[in-house]
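wait is this the right file?? whatever heres the structure
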C-alpha cells in the first residue's frame, strides 16, 4: 500500500477513535452540554455541568475552562444586577427636592463600592461582550455620579 494512501487513512481512523472517545466519555459529554448552556447564557447550569464533568475527570480542560468562564460571567451578571439596584436607589434620592449631606455621602459610598467592584472584574476573550459593555456603561455612570457629588 502506498504511503500517500496509508497515512491519510490512518489519520482519519485516528480522528474517529478520538471522536468516539470524546463523545462516549461521560466527562466530555457533560462538558459539551456545559458548553452549550454557556453559549446560551445559562451560566448557572453551565457551571453545574462543568463541575460534574471536572469531578469525573480532573484532566478535562474543557470542563475547567467552562467552569472558570461561567464564574466570570456570573460575576458580571451580579455586578450589573447590583448596579441596577443601586441606580434605582440613587434615582429615588435624586428625585427629592433637596439632597441631604447624608444622602450625598450614601451616593458617594455606593459609587465608590461599585467602581472598586468593577476593577475586580476581569473579562476574557470568551466573556459575553454584552455583559462587558453593560458593566462598563454602569461603571461610567458611577464615575459621573462620583464627580457630581464631589463638586
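ok assuming it is, sequence goes like this
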Amino acid at each position: 500500500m502506498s504511503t500517500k494512501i496509508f497515512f491519510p487513512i490512518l489519520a482519519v481512523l485516528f480522528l474517529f477513535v478520538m471522536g468516539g472517545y470524546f463523545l462516549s466519555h461521560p466527562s466530555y459529554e457533560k462538558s459539551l452540554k456545559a458548553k452549550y448552556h454557556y453559549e446560551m447564557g445559562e451560566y448557572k447550569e453551565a457551571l453545574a455541568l462543568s463541575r460534574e464533568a471536572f469531578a469525573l475527570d480532573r484532566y478535562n480542560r474543557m470542563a475547567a475552562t467552562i467552569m472558570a468562564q461561567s464564574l466570570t460571567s456570573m460575576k458580571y451578571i451580579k455586578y450589573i444586577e447590583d448596579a441596577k439596584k443601586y441606580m434605582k436607589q440613587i434615582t429615588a434620592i435624586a428625585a427629592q427636592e433637596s439632597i441631604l449631606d447624608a444622602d450625598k455621602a450614601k451616593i458617594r459610598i455606593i459609587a465608590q463600592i461599585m467602581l472598586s467592584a468593577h476593577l475586580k472584574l476581569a473579562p476574557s476573550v470568551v466573556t459575553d461582550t454584552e455583559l462587558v459593555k453593560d458593566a462598563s456603561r454602569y461603571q461610567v455612570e458611577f464615575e459621573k455620579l462620583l464627580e457630581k457629588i464631589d463638586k
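The chain has a mean pLDDT of 89. so i think its the right one actually
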